[in-house]
Amino acid sequence: MVDGRSLPRLKKRVPRKLVISLDVQVAEIVAALTKLGGEAHRTMVLHQIAIARHGVPARVTPKLEREVIAAFEAHCRLPPDVPARVRGSFGVTSHRWVLARG
Question: What are the angstrom distances between the C-alpha of 39 and each of 81, 96, 99, 100?
Fold first, then answer.
């Protein structure tokens, strides 16, 4: 019989979290804004992204909302030499988002 002290300890497996890169999230925002005519309130953008991810109309979860808004805000804080793809109509804190020109 084998006692428990002689067996090697196994590490617990930690489930991996799905991490979507900033570029992918900004691409989702761009795709949603394109479908919405290039400019829309962020709530509409979030609904469009939820539909795109699930293939059917879906509820915008708090997690999705946090992730997309964080990606938008991070993109708006990029250095000026990096071309912007999206921006707030009335500044960074604007809830109306538009595709950046240029």
Answer: 23, 7, 7, 10
Residues 45/39, Cβ–Cβ less than 8 Å: no
User: What angle do the packed helices 22-35 and 42-54 form, to 10 degrees?
Assistant: 110
Amino acid at 79: P
The answer to whether 97 touches 36, Cβ cutoff 8 Å, is no
- Nearest-angstrom CA–CA distance, 101 and 87: 9
* Residue 84 near residue 29 (C-beta atoms within 8 A): no
- pLDDT tens-digit map of 17-43: 555 677 899 999 999 999 999 999 999
Q: How, if at all, do strands 39-41 and 96-99 pair? A: antiparallel
